[in-house]
Write a structure and sequence with these properties.
The structure holds two protein chains of two kinds. Chain A has 14 helices and nine strands. Chain A has helices spanning about 35-65, 70-100, 105-125, 140-155, 160-175, 185-195, 200-210, 240-250, 290-300, 305-315, 325-340, 345-365, 380-395, 410-435, and strands at about 1-10, 15-20, 25-30, 215-225, 255-260, 265-270, 275-280, 370-375, 400. In chain A, strand 8 (about 370-375), helix 13 and strand 9 form a beta-alpha-beta unit. The two termini of chain A are about 20 Å apart. Chain B has one domain (about 1-430). Chain B is built from 18 helices and ten strands. In chain B, the strands form three sheets. A four-stranded parallel β-sheet of chain B has the order 2-1-3-4, with helices on both faces. Classes of the chains: A alpha/beta, B alpha/beta.
Chain lengths: ~450, ~425
């Protein structure tokens, strides 16, 4: 099967989208961006390939007329994730053990060994159906448990907490930046099935069938901030402005204005009826008011990023906040708290402040036209969405605002569409060169 | 750091550039020797400069903006700006001013490494930039020297009226000329001024021919990055001199020869590859990362075919010439005719004409953080030009001489996005 691949190397996360032969989305993958961009791309791609295989499994089940009424496929996917997690945990344990100095063997070494064993045992509970996980990235998953255990054991065993945390911080960089193998669906799927003895026969057959489909990447296009470092030839690199425009058009064909708020930039893009960019503006000179601002606020308030929006939504009297400087935000926050303002009211004000900045970019790019599509990580935040909705209504009247649950993949989807286009163009060119008829 | 690469890799230079470099070096050397030779000088600004009039009194012009941009290109502006900020000038003040003040406070050592003489006269002959006035106010406090100011009316309605012209000529006669006479100890010599103005017009004809060569495809010049070299002598201390006439004749010959051979522009990194995009650029360039900035365009095959920055010292391509038959009148028109003194509709009209006449793909604005003379109204202009030409506009932001405001990754990202947008629109048209 010939695939078109788009990779969006963002400042916070790296995303990959795989399109199948008819242009349908076959798989999506995401990972946290890291210092080694190539590894980040490989991991995102390998995640997307895994996701594509599961799509194929689902297709095979349907073709076999078996369906998945029992919900076996999600269970299998959980078992698969657990296998992946355990494999990475083994690597982490190896790296940490190598970092422990011989003189630490009886103290820190013993404690860290116990922690790693407990982490392995806890994996079962973590991947139970219905169990909530803070994130799907290994760094976050393993990190949060490791930190909890370190706090607990440092106190009870009398070893330095900082040393325990230091070991993880050092090891995780190594683990994350190790080149991941190419596709690893087969072995993990096999161990997942092995741990799932009551898996029905049609599911086993479907997994085998999906694992055997040869997946060939016919063309890739890269985008995002780190695009120049992507392991692609220059002509396979596209600006994220174009990719977001085309991706938003593919998700919502009536889109005319796109707002993307990512980790370090905000983009206001106007597109025509074919998804071609006609005008754009990006945040100027500094990254004030971008997604990272919310990340910083979350850190300051000791909350999870995804918890900010819901809390802000509870506000009844939003505070007016003007500064969108990420560094000043902490001072602003403490000042407001000391004045007795409620957390939710301050948060609502902070959300409104970043959206006001986005409104200015939208205005500069040519305003907001129907339909309006909001993308990027911040589009998942209900308080940001609420503030945007009311400001757009105030300034541009009633219009349709689209937000896809997959909005984080918009840039990668656009890149994958470019890849398909380039692939077919290259195919036509080769056909002409060989004197064949073009389709 | 981009500045480092600016100074390490070998730079390709055209013959005219070498000639210009020597002219500038000789001028600075003469200024440095002024305390011994007794040469007197006049500090003045590029827009609306009265170089012929100054030189007709055997006075030497010193141009603080040129010193600032030259300092920036030599990697010295960061420290000078720090000195000015230490003196209490805020971060938002025009960075030309801060760079110049910092240089002055650091011993007034010019870009060539030689000390510049203190001013014998401060001549403000363009008031379209309010900052200029404040700048000289500070210099007046620093050096106890005479100041003369020429108030230049803004072309709000897009035209120069008789009364405007009279108003400026009267000031030239009653204020500026007496001040120059007093500093130089010489009488105003109109015959000498006429000779110089005739030479100016000759050089201006050749400059216009050079700038218009960009109508060709491929364009033999880059009218922005290359353009700033071409305007150097005529916008600064050399207009009206024999050297300037010779320089522009040689430059024109060089450019016309490139045009005949169908060659593209020469960049500091060598001849440019295939011309893929033709742009019109509005706004001054960034000077601290000039070479890196240019390379971003050249690497993408983007040639600037017309720019407004190369008109800050005169819009000669629209027909203006210094006129020996109307010496003071034509100087007055010159002062009122520089680019930033034109109304916004006139600027829009110019940009639209450039896009059409030079068959450009679109307008790109480099908006300068600390220059309101240029930046005010630019987004409105962008929208208007897009509407009137149907060609896409792009917007990037940087600064004149403060290296802190040149964010290379962001600028490159926007530029590439803009060029890819043009390409996508082209592909859409042919699809």
């Amino acid at each position: 099967m010939k695939l078109g691949v788009g990779i969006d190397l963002g400042s916070t996360t790296t995303k990959a989208v795989i399109l199948g032969e008819t242009g349908e989305v076959l798989g999506r993958g995401i990972t946290n961006s890291r210092s080694n961009y190539k590894v980040a791309c490989d991991v995102a791609l390998s995640e997307a390939l895994t996701n594509a295989r599961f799509t194929l499994v689902s297709g095979a089940l349907e073709r076999a007329g078996a369906g998945d009424a029992q919900g076996d496929l999600p269970r299998l996917e959980l078992a698969f994730r657990k296998q992946q997690y355990l494999a990475q945990l083994t690597t982490l344990a190896e790296v940490i053990r190598a970092l422990v100095a011989p003189r630490e063997a009886t103290g820190v070494g013993r404690v860290v060994g116990e922690m790693l064993e407990r982490m392995e045992r806890d994996a079962d509970a973590m991947f139970q159906p219905g169990a909530s996980r803070k994130s799907d990235f290994f760094r976050d998953l393993a990190g949060s448990i490791y930190l909890r255990l370190a706090e607990e054991l440092a106190r009870s065993e009398g070893v330095p907490f900082d040393r325990l945390v230091g070991l993880f911080d050092k090891a995780i960089l190594d683990v994350e930046n190790r080149p991941s193998g190419v596709e690893s669906f087969g072995p993990y799927a096999a161990s997942a099935l092995a741990s799932f003895p009551d898996a029905p026969r049609p599911l086993r057959a479907a997994v085998r069938e999906a694992a055997d489909v040869p997946l060939e990447i016919a063309c890739s296009v890269g985008t995002g901030y780190g695009r120049a470092t992507l392991p692609f030839p220059r002509e396979q690199i596209r600006s994220e402005i174009l990719c977001h425009g085309l991706g938003a058009h593919a998700m919502f064909p009536a889109t005319r204005t796109v707002l993307d708020i990512g980790g370090q930039d905000t983009k206001a893009i106007q597109v025509d009826e074919r998804g071609i960019v006609t005008s754009f503006q990006m945040n100027d000179r500094c990254a004030a008011g971008c997604g990272r601002y919310l990340g910083y606020i979350a850190d300051e308030m000791n909350m999870g990023l995804q918890e900010l929006g819901p809390l802000a939504c509870q506000s009844t009297r939003p505070v007016r906040i003007n500064s969108t400087c990420t560094v000043f935000a902490g001072a602003e926050l403490r000042e407001r708290l000391s004045l007795g303002e409620k957390r939710e009211d301050i948060l609502a004000g902070l959300h409104r402040a970043i959206i006001l900045r986005a409104m200015s970019l939208l205005a500069r790019s040519g305003g907001v036209s129907n339909q309006f599509t909001f993308t990027g990580g911040v589009a998942k935040n209900p308080a940001a969405v609420g503030a945007l909705q009311s400001l757009v209504r105030e300034n541009y009247g009633e219009l349709t605002m689209n937000i896809s649950p997959d909005s984080i993949y918009t840039g990668a989807l656009g890149a994958a569409l470019f890849a398909r286009r380039d692939g077919s163009r290259a195919h036509d060119a080769a056909a002409v060169a060989e004197g064949r008829e073009t389709a | 750091m981009p500045d480092v690469s600016d100074r390490t890799a070998a730079v390709h230079k055209e013959d005219s550039q070498v000639r210009q470099k020597n002219m500038i070096a000789a001028h600075y050397a003469r200024l440095a020797r002024a305390p011994e030779t007794g040469d007197k000088n006049v500090y003045t600004f590029v827009p609306g400069n009265l170089t012929e009039l100054i030189r007709s009194f055997d006075l030497l012009p010193v141009l603080p903006e040129i010193n600032a941009l030259q300092s920036a290109m030599r990697g010295k502006s960061r420290d000078y700006i720090a000195v000015a900020e230490k003196l209490g000038h805020s971060e938002d003040v025009c960075t030309y001013v801060k760079c110049d003040l910092g240089m002055m406070k650091s011993g007034n050592v010019g870009p060539t490494g030689e000390r510049l003489p203190p001013p014998d006269l401060l001549l403000l002959s363009y008031t379209g930039c309010f900052t200029f006035m404040k700048w000289f106010e500070i210099l007046r406090e620093e050096y106890t020297c005479p100041v003369v100011m020429l108030h230049v009316p803004y072309q709000g309605d897009g035209t120069i009226t008789d009364s405007m012209r009279r108003y400026v000529v009267d000031q030239l006669r009653d204020k500026v000329i007496p001040a120059l006479e007093s500093v130089s100890g010489r009488r105003y010599d109109e015959a000498r001024l006429r000779e110089m103005l005739a030479r100016s017009a000759r050089a201006e004809d050749d400059l216009v021919a050079v700038l218009n060569s960009a109508r060709q495809k491929p364009s033999p010049i880059d009218a922005y990055f290359g353009g700033v070299y071409y305007i150097g002598p005529i916008f600064s201390a050399f207009r009206g001199t024999v050297e300037a006439v010779d320089y522009y004749r040689a430059l024109r010959g060089e450019v016309e020869e490139r045009g005949r051979q169908g060659l593209g522009p020469i960049t500091p990194d060598g001849p440019m590859a295939r011309e893929r995009f033709r742009l019109v650029v509005e706004g001054p360039p960034n000077w601290t990362s000039f070479r890196e900035f240019w390379k971003m365009f050249a690497d993408e095959g983007a040639v600037v075919v017309a720019s407004t920055y190369t008109k800050v010292g005169g819009v000669y391509d629209l027909g203006f010439r210094h006129d020996p038959d109307r010496p003071l009148e034509s100087l007055a028109e010159y002062c009122m005719g520089c680019y930033t003194n034109l109304s916004l509709p006139r600027r829009v009209e110019m940009l639209v004409n450039y896009i059409n006449d030079f068959d450009a793909d679109g307008l790109l604005i480099n908006s300068i953080k600390s220059c309101n003379s240029f930046s005010a109204g630019q987004l409105m202009m962008l929208r208007e030009v897009e509407r009137l030409t149907g060609r896409p506009g792009g917007f990037i932001e940087s600064d004149l001489v403060d290296p802190r405001y040149f964010s290379a990754a962001n600028i490159k990202n926007r530029l590439e996005s803009y060029l890819q947008m043009i390409e996508q629109k082209r592909a859409g048209k042919t699809a």
